[in-house]
Amino acid sequence: WGYEVPNYRPPSIVADAETGKTHNAVILHGTGIAWGNVSTITFQYGLTKALGTNVVADESPIMGAVNETVHTDLAGLTPATKYYWRIQLSFFPGQIVYSLIKSFTTDHAP
User: Fold this and answer.
1) Cα 2 to the chain's mean position, in Å?
2) Over 4-69, what HEC string results?
3) Which of 45, 39, 42, 51 has the alpha carbon at shortest distance from 95?
4) What's the CA gap between 88 and 40, in Å, rounded?
5) Which residues of 65-90 are buried (b: 16+ CB within 10 A; e: fewer)?
6) Pick from 57, 68, 81: which is nearest to 33 by CA?
7) pLDDT tier at 10 (50, 70, 90 boundaries)?
8) What pTM, to 2 d.p., does this model score?
9) What is d(CA 23, CA 110) in angstroms, rounded to the nearest whole number?
10) Is the per-residue pLDDT at 69 higher than 50?
11) Cα-based angle 46, 80, 20 (whole degrees, multiple of 5)
């Protein structure tokens, strides 16, 4: 016997396009909807799809019932290097959803 919450919508997160990419920095963007659940937003990135580095979004936590934009600025990146990234949305009780993994390559050093 399962229990269903009427009209329950689970939170979701989407990785959007990167902006401001240079040889050592980038701004990562996403759109999330928490549907009333207090949700922590974390950007995960690394040199492989295993990722490895976590940065909490500037707007975290979110909890609204409308799409909310989130972002983080990354600096100190290696020039001419491919990075992978995704967004993790965590909400009570210990539930996690992820965006798809995306990638970008930093510019060559000037």
Assistant:
1) 31
2) CCCCCCCCEEEECCCECCCCCEEEEEEEEECCCCCEEEEEEEECCCCCCEEEECCCCCECCCCCEE
3) 39
4) 8
5) eeebebbbebeebeeeeebbbbbbbb
6) 68
7) confident
8) 0.90
9) 8
10) yes
11) 80
